Automatic annotation (TrEMBL):
Name of a matching Pfam family: ROK
Lineage of the organism: Bacteria, Pseudomonadati, Pseudomonadota, Betaproteobacteria, Burkholderiales
UniProt name for this protein: Sugar kinase
SUPFAM superfamilies listed in its UniProt record: Actin-like ATPase domain
UniProtKB keywords: Kinase, Transferase
Single GO term (MF): kinase activity
InterPro entries: ATPase_NBD (IPR043129), ROK (IPR000600), ROK_cs (IPR049874), WH-like_DNA-bd_sf (IPR036388)
Source organism per UniProt: Pseudorhodoferax aquiterrae
Signal peptide coordinates: none
Coiled-coil spans in chain: none
Length: 414
């Protein structure tokens, strides 16, 4: 973070990090994870007296690390001022790389969005040099659109669809993108940005984004991304759990049918091979070509291909074959999740990824399977729903990773 401080001093309008005490860093951390809080709301959970809390906040405001951001609704007395990390601290860059999509965003330290762009890619066909060169170009374009400069970038968060060695910032044997194995994303971006770069699995970032949205109020929950593949971000005791080698949450390769189709991992019957986006499309093509779904057949005739969203549209129009496909995929995902729920006992299961576009029938099938197959105690207070952040979850999580790790580098770190 010393290097970050030196960078920000060189840029007009960016407040330098100054010598900050451990107590002040605790308040900054609380301000990040509890946006829109008052002085009292920040200080009380940390165990500070009212006078000490006010003094710490006043000092951070004087240093340009916190700022007031309007008043809260009155509770009968003088309305309290809300606080946030100072916008002058710098800018965050968030990069969310999916198997078939790329999203880049510029955010302020409080994760308010300044600019964002999304486009289609295919990491299975395009190597890291091509994808990251495009991401770097978008960073430059969005920074310029936001009126920012490279020297103002405080930290960069990157999500990728595969297991990550978090300390090294590298993918490790990613099954869907073998050309990325051990590729250093940090080194690629180092020449252009002196800010630190943090890399994590894309579903871990979705979980981190939801944790930030929830203000860390839920300590144990999972986020499941269902798109080209199936992965799971695990929040345990208020922190993202990555496992011994970065592969925690790779639930897509849990078998739901030992006699099922062969998965790209080499095993048979993985839930990813039988219920992810490509599997839904494969079942839709079979139904269309067999004459079982007039609507899917008509869409295929016009466009020449089908997508999971087409199955959702057909289902909402009452197409029986589309309904059967979504129910089958949902039951298989629920079967896998029941094992996870019995093992981990989360309070919430949040579903994200492209599959959320298919509508409520898939979610209903997942819920039914989870509740039928899980132990009663595990589901007594369990909620299964679509992730509230939706398509924004990846970039919000990338921004949360960037800011949280920037604070952690100051010595705060839980």
């Amino acid at each position: 973070m010393r290097r970050i401080a030196e960078n920000t001093r060189e840029t007009s309008g960016v407040t330098p990090w100054q010598a900050t005490t451990a107590d002040e860093m605790r308040v900054l951390d609380a301000a990040f994870w509890s946006p829109g809080s008052s002085r009292h709301a920040l200080a009380a959970p940390l165990g500070f007296s009212s006078s000490k809390g006010k003094a710490l906040v006043a000092g951070l405001i004087d240093q340009g690390l916190l700022e007031e951001a309007g008043t809260q609704a009155s509770q009968g007395g003088r309305p309290a001022e809300t606080l946030r990390l100072h916008h002058g601290l710098g800018l965050l860059l968030g990069v969310d790389i999916g198997v078939t999509s790329l999203t880049v965003a510029v955010l302020r330290p409080d994760l308010s969005l300044l600019a964002q762009h999304s486009e289609d890619i295919d990491v299975r066909r395009q190597g890291p040099g091509v994808v990251l060169a495009r991401a770097a170009a978008l960073m430059r374009e969005l920074l310029a659109r936001s009126g920012g400069q490279a020297a103002q970038v405080l930290s960069i968060g990157v999500g990728v669809p595969g297991p990550v060695n978090f300390e090294a910032g590298q993918l490790v044997s990613p099954p869907l993108m073998p050309d990325w194995d051990q590729f250093s994303i940090r080194d690629f971006l180092r020449d252009e940005y002196r800010a630190p770069v943090f890399v994590d699995n894309d579903v871990n970032l979705m979980a981190l984004g939801e944790l930030w949205r929830l203000k860390r109020a839920l300590p144990n929950f999972i986020v499941v991304k269902i798109g080209t593949g199936i992965g799971c971000g695990i929040v345990c005791h208020g922190s993202v759990y990555r496992g011994a080698t970065g592969s925690a949450g790779d639930v897509g390769h849990i078998s739901v049918d030992p006699e099922g189709p062969r998965c790209h991992c080499g095993n048979r019957g993985c839930v990813e091979a039988m219920a992810a986006g490509p599997a839904i499309v494969r079942m839709a093509l079979e139904a269309a070509e067999a004459g079982e779904s007039p609507q899917l057949a008509a869409t295929l005739a016009v466009r020449g291909h089908l997508a999971a969203e087409d199955v959702g549209a057909a289902s909402r129009a009452g197409d029986a074959a589309a309904n059967r496909i979504l129910q089958h995929a949902g039951h298989l995902v629920g079967q896998m999740l029941a094992a996870v729920v019995n093992f981990f006992n989360p309070s919430h299961v949040l579903l994200g990824g492209g599959i959320t576009q298919v509508g409520p029938l898939f979610l209903a099938a997942v819920r039914q399977s989870v509740y039928q197959r899980s132990l009663a105690l595990s589901t007594r207070q369990l909620e299964v729903q679509y992730a509230p952040l939706g398509a924004q979850g990846g970039v919000v999580g990338a921004g949360a990773l960037a800011m949280a790790e920037a604070l952690r580098a100051r010595g705060l770190a839980p």
